[in-house]
Amino acid sequence: MSLEVSTRDPVGAQVRGVTVGRLNPTMVSHLRALLAVHGVLVLPDQHVDDDAFTQFLESFGTLAFTTGETPVPAAPALNVITNVGRTRPPRSSFHVDTSYLRTPPAYTALRAVTVPERGGQTLFTNQYTAYATLPRQLQAQIRSRVVTHVVTGLDLDEDAETEARHPLALRHPLTGRTALYLSTRERCRAVSGMAPEDAAALIDELLTHSTQPDNVFRHAWRPYDVVIWDNRCVMHKADHDGVVGDRVMHRGTVMDEARWG
């Protein structure tokens, strides 16, 4: 195994030497470790189709389709993210994927299908750093707090999961490091032991702290990029401002119950 790893600041790494497709267990273990440390891995020059992308994701665990999203017609385990045919740009805020599930996906990945002429970057935060740089008093205040995450913006069946509770200070099972586990203001409905107005103010403060410019990596998409990240230690959002041209991504999420929190 010969991987070329180039770190990004303040989070992420570019990795060469990986071919997206079915991976052997040794490679999966190595990439899991890199994801746990760096949060985001950019795999450039992946001239692959959805079959290979799906096999790549299945190497990490069980694929989980997000109910309410638009599936890729020929690859229903994936969903499509696109600005094509929209009269208004999509909206995106910093979040982690499907945090309203009791066991959210450990990993999310995007395959660049069509890259716009300008704009359309994806932004990532380092949630290890977000926690580590909090004042000690605030760290102590939130260390035992639990956040109630709720579903927003999706039309789900009556029997679907719509609410889950997760630690605000999440210990990563591979690194042992603590990350600040947040999602959008709307999804973070309540904080244990706090009045609603105090909980909302705390979430606002933590989101503002997490998304300071010096804690954000902007990935500018190139044709044939595949990007995978660890939802336990990063937040992400798409920047849809000023996009020129079509932006089409195919997305997959991976459940990994044995390695969640």
Task: Explain this structure.
By secondary structure, the chain is of the alpha+beta class. 20% of the residues lie in helices and 29% in strands. The strands form four sheets. Strands 1, 2, 3, 4, 5, 6, 7, 15 and 17 form a nine-stranded mixed β-sheet that branches. A three-stranded antiparallel β-sheet has the order 14-8-16, with no helix packed on it. Strands 10-9-13 form a three-stranded antiparallel β-sheet. β2, α1 and β3 form a beta-alpha-beta unit. The protein is globular and about 50 Å long. It starts with a strand and ends in a 6-residue tail after the last strand. The mean pLDDT is 95.
Please write out the topology.
Layout (H helix, E strand, L loop, with lengths): L3 E4 L5 E4 L8 H14 L1 E4 L6 H9 L3 E2 L7 E2 L2 E8 L24 E8 L7 E4 L1 H6 L3 H7 L3 E5 L12 E5 L1 E3 L6 E3 L7 E4 L4 H15 L5 E4 L6 E5 L5 E3 L9 E8 L6
Parallel strand pairs: 2-3
Antiparallel strand pairs: 1-2, 3-15, 4-17, 5-6, 6-17, 7-15, 7-17, 8-14, 8-16, 9-10, 9-13, 11-12
